[in-house]
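4.2 Preliminary Data

To establish feasibility before requesting continued support, the project team ran the inverse folding procedure on a target of 383 residues. The structure was first converted into the token representation described in Section 3, and no sequence information of any kind was made available to the design step. The complete token record follows.
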């Protein structure tokens, strides 16, 4: 494994770091408190090329690789996990699928506006009765008698950026009797009639990322909006999620790194019993374990990114990276509060926000149990 960064990778990391520190840091606590979607900074992320990092330049993206993408996400997540997930969903869950499965004409219409950050894309697989068991979907897409339009009906839940999305990659059943083999992937234009957004979900963390349900009531979509063939839906969704998991792992890494850096600094300032708390072995051991878990997460993430860059199979590596990084984020942020004592529990400092933000990384884009399932299948069945 060669992790020596290219000039382009260093440049995007530095750009993301600079932008996060100058433009996102001043509003991060406030938008966590209010839950306001940060439209202005998201627009600027688009202008800087952060919303379509891996998309070829001809379709509005920055044309960089997966390592560049994870470096940028980590820097944004260090400052604000809400911005990181908005970025990750647009980059991975929306743009990745279109980059790999859409036709040239579809890319021009649906990919270019979101990769360039002019519009926002979302991804809609989950339904009220099916999250981990995603093949059990009830949203139905029926081709009309003329064969030129699908009529879509049903309800989808938990759509990140759903309240603001211009386009949504949607998965629906075209032949429900075939279960996951009877599904298709569509790009929803949220301005067409029959599409409605539900109320914004109140959440524990990533509070400035907007999440909602959506309903489709005889929503009509031209066949041009179908990505791939009927029957390809589940395959596309799983492939997109494999790629997305590397982004969520990088988000988790950023949250953990922020909590770790704050803990190291605080332990060298805070005094108890006449010593800096960093001099207590109990604190040192927490810091050592934090550093080790973060470093292990980083190596797993870079490994998954490099496998993806070199077009090797990377499902197992992406699952390992997400599993380890998300559980590290949860563990490190818990210990960061411990190291800070009472002030760590207060909204005076961002430590409690890191802790609340970390939890979601163990849930979305496949829970930790689902990641273990993927890894175990690879180990036992060679998949
Ligand atoms: C803030 C937020 C944003 C989200 N954004 C999106 C989005 O943009 N698009 C989208 O489509 N979805 C999104 N989701 C949905 C998310 O991906 C699901 O919540 C997640 O996959 C888990 O599904 P579930 O909530 O239905 O839980 P369930 O699947 O009901 O799981 C409940 C529990 O059972 C466990 N479990 C389930 N099956 C197994 C099994 N086979 N073996 C062992 N344990 C199992 C789970 O790990 C979990 O602990 C979002 C969710 C949240 C909370």
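Position-by-position output of the design step:
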């Amino acid at each position: 494994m060669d992790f020596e960064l290219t000039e382009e990778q260093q440049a995007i990391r530095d750009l993301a770091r600079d932008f996060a520190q100058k433009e996102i840091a001043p509003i991060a606590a406030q938008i966590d408190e209010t839950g306001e979607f940060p439209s202005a900074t998201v627009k600027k992320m688009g202008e800087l090329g952060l919303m379509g990092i891996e998309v070829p330049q001809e379709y509005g993206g920055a044309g960089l690789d997966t390592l560049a993408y994870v470096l940028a996400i980590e820097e944004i997540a260090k400052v604000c996990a809400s911005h990181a997930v908005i970025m990750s969903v647009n980059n991975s869950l929306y743009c990745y699928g279109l980059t790999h499965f859409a036709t040239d004409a579809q890319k021009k219409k649906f990919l270019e506006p979101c990769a360039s950050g002019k519009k926002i894309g979302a991804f809609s697989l989950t339904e009220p009765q099916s999250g981990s068991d995603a093949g059990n979907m009830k949203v139905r897409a029926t081709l009309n008698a003329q064969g030129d339009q699908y009529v879509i009906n049903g309800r989808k839940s938990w759509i990140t950026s759903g309240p603001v999305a211009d386009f949504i990659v949607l998965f629906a059943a075209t032949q429900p009797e075939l279960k996951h083999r009877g599904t298709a992937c569509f790009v929803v234009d949220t301005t067409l009639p029959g599409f409605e957004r539900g109320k914004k979900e109140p959440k524990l963390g990533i509070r400035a990322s907007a999440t909602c349900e959506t309903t489709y009531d005889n929503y009509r979509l031209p066949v041009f909006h179908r990505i791939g063939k009927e029957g390809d839906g589940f395959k596309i969704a799983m492939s997109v999620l494999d790629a997305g998991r590397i982004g969520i792992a990088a988000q988790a890494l950023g949250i953990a790194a922020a909590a770790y850096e704050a803990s190291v600094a605080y332990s060298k300032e805070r005094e108890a019993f006449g010593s800096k708390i960093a001099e207590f072995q109990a604190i040192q051991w927490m810091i050592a374990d934090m550093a080790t878990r973060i470093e292990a997460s980083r190596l797993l993430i870079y490994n998954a990114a490099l496998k993806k860059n070199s077009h090797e199979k990377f499902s197992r590596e992406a699952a390992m990276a997400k599993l380890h990084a998300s559980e590290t984020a949860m563990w490190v942020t818990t210990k960061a509060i411990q190291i800070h004592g009472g002030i760590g529990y207060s909204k005076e400092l961002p430590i409690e926000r890191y802790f609340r933000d970390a939890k979601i990384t163990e849930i979305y884009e496949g829970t930790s149990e689902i990641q273990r399932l993927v890894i175990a299948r690879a180990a036992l069945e060679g998949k």
